[in-house]
């Protein structure tokens, strides 16, 4: 390792000790500081990396540049949690070296010691990641025999290089029991490649997918591939391939199909584009590896940001945060077919601090504006409207409301759409790409419509009808006093239920805990 990186490593290591939480009341309390989302204490963060569960801990590594708040020579930051919610910062896991900067990748538990790296009781965690050096991208590995606390880069790095490809990155690896091989899915410009390996060190190309499927509005990045049951039926399984797109547009799409250990076959028309999120700020999401079978969930987290403005959003001493952790489900939806559905993980219920309001079976008009004017910092709204009884034109919430504006979140009943409109916040007009309205068609237009909304200091996540549609949006309102308004235009709406909880911060000073 060059001396420059050795000096850096020393500097950071002396600054951080495991579990250190500063005893300051301003800790994680800045205006735009997410209260129940993960963000680094300082520095720049982008993609989640190396999501793995091992021995009671969920690991979250992430693209990290500690010396600034823009993308720089990337490192792997590191945090762990026992509940997917409260994160404990650990020292930087991996530094750039002579092979290159530390780009995105994954971590797996090498259960059967196929790599031969295990030399004690603990199973070995193996990281597989891209290293970037002056535009050249190669895949490398590193291993840890102490529960992810320290990492050794493999002396034979890189383990996979194909100089003919410039965009050649973001490996996601899993154990494929049918072929008894490790499988790597890798983003290669406008498609994904598949490689397999018996030992995580030697990789062989087996196939590719995507050059003429789905959206190509940008380069493909951060793929993931996993098998899912359809509506929990173990006799009906499909493979899901997810991929992020970075270009004119920044977003995530998915494909449903078959995977035989060598390559993926799309079951839907190749020109069909299936977006994962209807908002603008959900990117580079990948799923946790090695979740115990007894849990069985497919869990993932995304970077809550969007490359076109990622380096320009308001920032303090840090820039970037993650979404909440979500559970993925593959569901058959009447009138649509199979859909990748996202739900907030149930662990989030543990930060509900107080029930601010809870009403059932009432008309909007009878509520008498009981909600409007409520001032809450971070909160969760659950609304169920019975459309068969309602004749309203549009209903929803004006959130982040102050003298300068609001964010409009709701259902356009006449058009059968759900939307989030960021155009009414004054300072959004100063930021390119922010003053926009995002909408999605409602799949179920009559019957019950459910909105489940998470509001943090600078974001909104809305799950429509149990996650059939999800909106992930950053919101920057300049005022500190922000109220809620519940509205319904024309006619009336029948509220099956409406509950609002205020939410606790996950970043506690020890003396307040
Ligand atoms: C996605 C991405 C990856 C790359 C990483 C670099 O956001 O561009 O393709 O590995 O970020 O930080």
From TrEMBL:
Residues 370-502 form the Glycosyl hydrolase family 32 C-terminal domain. Keywords: Glycosidase, Hydrolase. Pfam families: Glyco_hydro_32C, Glyco_hydro_32N. SMART domains: Glyco_32 (SM00640). Transmembrane segments: none annotated. Signal peptide: none annotated. InterPro entries: ConA-like_dom_sf, Glyco_hydro_32, Glyco_hydro_32_AS, Glyco_hydro_32_C, Glyco_hydro_32_N, Glyco_hydro_beta-prop_sf. Residues 37-344 form the Glycosyl hydrolase family 32 N-terminal domain. One of its GO terms (molecular function) is sucrose alpha-glucosidase activity. One of its GO terms (biological process) is sucrose catabolic process. GO terms for cellular component: cytoplasm. The keyword Hydrolase applies. Belongs to the glycosyl hydrolase 32 family. This is Levanase.
């Amino acid at each position: 390792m060059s001396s420059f990186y050795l000096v850096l490593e020393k500097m950071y290591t002396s600054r951080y000790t495991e579990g250190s939480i500063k005893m300051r009341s301003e800790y994680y309390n800045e205006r735009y500081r997410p209260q129940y989302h993960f963000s680094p204490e300082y520095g720049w963060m982008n993609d989640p990396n190396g999501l793995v569960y091992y021995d009671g801990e969920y690991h979250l590594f992430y693209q990290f540049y500690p010396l600034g708040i823009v993308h720089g020579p990337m490192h792997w930051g590191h945090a762990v949690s026992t509940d997917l919610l409260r994160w404990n910062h650990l020292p930087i896991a991996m530094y750039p070296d002579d092979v290159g900067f530390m780009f995105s990748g994954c971590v797996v538990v090498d259960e059967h010691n196929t790599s031969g790296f295990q030399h004690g009781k603990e199973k070995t965690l193996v990281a597989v990641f891209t290293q970037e050096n002056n535009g050249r991208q190669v895949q490398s590995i590193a291993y840890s025999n102490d529960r992810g606390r320290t990492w050794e880069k493999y002396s034979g790095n890189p383990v996979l290089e194909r100089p003919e490809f410039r965009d050649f990155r973001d490996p996601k690896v899993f154990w494929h029991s049918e072929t008894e091989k490790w499988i790597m899915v890798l983003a290669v410009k406008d498609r994904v490649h598949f490689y397999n390996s018996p030992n995580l060190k030697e990789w062989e190309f087996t196939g590719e997918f995507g050059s003429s499927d789905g959206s190509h509005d940008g380069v493909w990045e951060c793929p993931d591939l996993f098998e899912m049951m359809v509506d929990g039926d173990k006799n009906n399984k499909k493979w899901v391939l997810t991929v992020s797109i970075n270009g004119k547009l920044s977003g995530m799409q998915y494909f449903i199909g078959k995977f035989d250990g060598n390559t993926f076959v799309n079951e839907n028309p190749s020109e069909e584009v299936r977006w994962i999120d209807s908002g603008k700020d959900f990117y580079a999401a990948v799923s946790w590896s090695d979740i115990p079978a007894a849990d069985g969930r497919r869990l993932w987290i995304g970077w809550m940001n969007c490359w076109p403005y990622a380096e320009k959003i308001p920032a303090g001493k840090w820039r970037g945060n993650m979404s909440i952790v979500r559970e993925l489900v593959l569901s058959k939806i009447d009138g649509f077919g199979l859909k990748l559905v996202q739900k907030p993980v149930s662990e989030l219920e543990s930060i509900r601090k107080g029930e601010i309001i809870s009403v059932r079976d009432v008309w909007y008009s009878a509520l008498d504006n009981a909600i409007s004017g409520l001032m809450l910092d971070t909160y969760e709204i659950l609304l169920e409207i019975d459309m068969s009884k309602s004749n309203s034109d549009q209903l929803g919430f004006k959130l982040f409301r102050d003298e300068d504006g609001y964010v409009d979140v709701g259902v356009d009943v006449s058009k059968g759409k759900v939307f989030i409109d960021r155009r009414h916040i004054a300072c959004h007009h100063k930021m390119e790409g922010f003053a926009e309205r995002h909408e999605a068609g409602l799949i179920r237009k009559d019957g019950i419509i459910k909105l489940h909304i998470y509001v943090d200091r600078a974001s909104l996540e809305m799950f429509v009808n149990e996650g059939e549609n999800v909106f992930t949006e950053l919101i920057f309102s300049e005022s500190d006093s922000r109220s809620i308004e519940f509205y319904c235009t024309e006619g009336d709406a029948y509220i099956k239920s409406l509950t609002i909880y205020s939410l606790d911060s996950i970043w506690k000073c020890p003396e307040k805990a």
